[in-house]
Amino acid sequence: MTSGNIILSARGVTKRFGTFTALDDVSIDIEEGEVVAVIGPSGSGKSTLAKCIHQLERINAGAIYLDGELLGFEYEGDRLLPLSNSALSRQRARMGMVFQQFNLFSHYTILENIIEGPTQVLGLSRAEAEERARSLLAEVHLLDKMTAYPRQLSGGQQQRAAIARALANEPRLMLFDEPTSALDPELVGEVLEVMRRLASSGTTMMVVTHEMAFARDVADRIVFMEAGKIVSQGTPREMFSVSPETRLGKFLSASGISLSGKD
Amino acid sequence: MSDSTANQGVAAFAPPPLQRDDASRAGVRGKQRRMAISLVIGALLVWLIVRAIQNPRFEWDVVGQYFTADAIMRGLGTSLYLTVVLFFFSVILGTLLAVGRASSYAPLRVFTWIYNWVFRAVPALVQIVLWFNLAYLVPTLSLSIPFGPTLWEVPTNEVISPFAAAVLGLGLCEAAYMAEIIRAGLASVDRGQNDAAHAIGLTNRQTFFRIVLPQSMRFIIPPLGSQTILILKGTSLVSVIALSDLLHSAQAIYNRTLDVVPLLMVATIWYLIIVSVMSVLQLGLEHIFNRSHRDAKVMPAPGGDLL
């Protein structure tokens, strides 16, 4: 699935909130077409990593590159400056983000939610944007909800619409921040199903998740984080056959995963 | 067979089953008592209104005579014009103040806090008179380079007309209240909406005008409506600086004819009419900005509408 072409590269990223260090010298590369699942206990910094990559949080140290371009900062001579607001917005538009709480624009219909990025950021005409929105809505099975407002949809439907909205800018990289954690258990499957199809269509994805089965079945690589650091990473096969004595092993056992070792 | 006998046994003791929609047609408890209370209150109201109309001291014929008099119409026009100007003045300034209050730039936050503190503390009537007498404090208004030459100069009295004093006195004060209303409205919008807007690449300006401000309207409009009604009634204060608003026009007539009560009734009825129209407009606006929250249906039953 992967091409060996690195899309995203984070180098020594550190993020502090006051005296609390949420990310501590984190480095990660994501290849084109790769699906990376980030797992770890609450407060391990995995959501913060997604937010820092998407430039929703400004990092304190390190550097993040998207297709070789430094994100969030620029050099003026040899002086490092934060990017201007408009340049930052252009960089963000090249990545898609799906939030735990969906965050659909509540005053817009589903269609209006999806065409907002293409019309306001990419400068597409309304007709072009609507055509794109229609094909995305067809993919997430929500064509019939096009004129509904977010509040009229179930959580699963809202999250599928939010995925369509994030895809509408045709991003290079899709970031998912615990996309199923706010859903009723019976609605998780429909969202994972959409994400599964996205993954198999070659979309580059980083998924922060507690869904171990999804990580095992869909991810090319699993990254385990704890206390703001990447503790270990590897293929699902490697990660799910660790010794129960390791920190990852203890986390997986606590998450209800039986470590077969023979998988 | 034994089963059906058992069922019959149960049925004999059970109340008649509710048919479809039976529950929604159930009666209201205490219906008679409510009717009686409504009738008594209604009768009292009718009696009060009839007594008022019959009271010869209201001089309804004089009210009718002056109700659409030229001076009253001009005064009404001034009051409405002043209200519209004040509305836009205070909403625009109030929005700037609200944004300043939420700014990450500390001096701006301090400035807007001090502004709100001062302009909400000083009574509007005092402010109107102070602005009207600005010439006493500052005889001329000039544009000059500090410690350098004067570029432009004009006597204060030429700039501060009664109308300008009214707009400044009432508007600066109203803007402080508007700022609080708008600030509360903006704060009511979920932070996640900001993140989502930034995530799809909207700039700060687009995020504010396209996402946050429209959503805050649902929270802003009800208090904004009340505030606008207060602005309209507040315009009656300008009669102290001899600006011919509705109240001042009525006063000018009764100072001549001594028909004090009838002319106050003329003004009262006009205020009542305008406020009623404004309330209807407010309802309309609330309806528009509530449309995304109006017909929220019950969520589909689990398993009923999956994929």
Please summarize what this structure is.
The complex is a heterodimer of chains A (263) and B (307). Chain A is 34% helix and 27% strand.
Give structural attributes.
heterodimer; A: 263 residues; alpha/beta; Rossmann fold; six-stranded mixed sheet; four-stranded antiparallel sheet; 9 helices; 12 strands; 27% strand; globular; B: 307 residues; mainly alpha; MetI-like fold; two-stranded antiparallel sheet; 2 strands; 4% strand; disordered C terminus
Secondary-structure blueprint:
The complex is a heterodimer of chains A (263) and B (307).
Chain A: E1 6-17, E2 20-31, E3 35-39, H1 46-53, E4 61-66, E5 69-70, E6 73-76, E7 79-82, H2 85-92, E8 95-98, H3 110-120, H4 126-139, H5 155-167, E9 173-177, H6 185-200, E10 205-208, H7 212-218, E11 221-226, E12 229-234, H8 236-239, H9 247-254
Parallel strand pairs in A: 3-10, 3-11, 8-9, 9-10
Antiparallel strand pairs in A: 1-2, 1-4, 4-5, 6-7, 11-12
Helix pairs in contact in A: 3-4, 3-5, 4-5, 5-6
Chain B: H1 2-13, H2 31-54, H3 60-67, H4 70-101, H5 106-121, H6 124-132, H7 134-137, E1 140-144, E2 150-155, H8 156-159, H9 162-187, H10 191-199, H11 204-234, H12 246-257, H13 260-289, H14 291-294
Antiparallel strand pairs in B: 1-2
Describe the structure.
- The complex is a heterodimer of chains A (263) and B (307).
- Chain A has a domain at 6-94 and 171-254: P-loop containing nucleotide triphosphate hydrolases (Rossmann fold, 3-Layer(aba) Sandwich), CATH 3.40.50.300.
- Chain A has 9 helices and 12 strands.
- Chain A has helices at residues 46-53, 85-92, 110-120, 126-139, 155-167, 185-200, 212-218, 236-239, 247-254; strands at residues 6-17, 20-31, 35-39, 61-66, 69-70, 73-76, 79-82, 95-98, 173-177, 205-208, 221-226, 229-234.
- In chain A, the strands form 3 sheets. A 6-stranded mixed sheet of chain A has the order 8-9-10-3-11-12, sandwiched between helices.
- In chain A, a hairpin with a 2-residue loop joins strand 4 and strand 5.
- The two termini of chain A are 21 Å apart.
- The model of chain A has no long low-confidence stretch (mean pLDDT 91).
- Chain B contains 14 helices and 2 strands; from the N terminus they run αααααααββααααααα.
- Chain B has one domain (59-290): MetI-like (MetI-like fold, Orthogonal Bundle), CATH 1.10.3720.
- The longest helix of chain B has 32 residues, at 70-101.
- Chain B is flat.
- With 307 residues, chain B is mainly alpha-helical.
- The model of chain B is unreliable at 296-307 (pLDDT under 50).
- The two termini of chain B are 45 Å apart.
- In chain B, helix 9 crosses helix 11.
- Chain A binds chain B through residues 54-56, 85-86, 89-90, 92-97, 99, 101, 103-109, 116-117, 120-121, 141, 149-152, 154, 156-157, 162, 165-166, 168-169, 184, 186-187, 189-190, 193, and chain B through 190, 192-193, 195-204, 206, 210-211, 214-215, 289, 291-293, 295-297, 299-300, 302-303, 305-307.
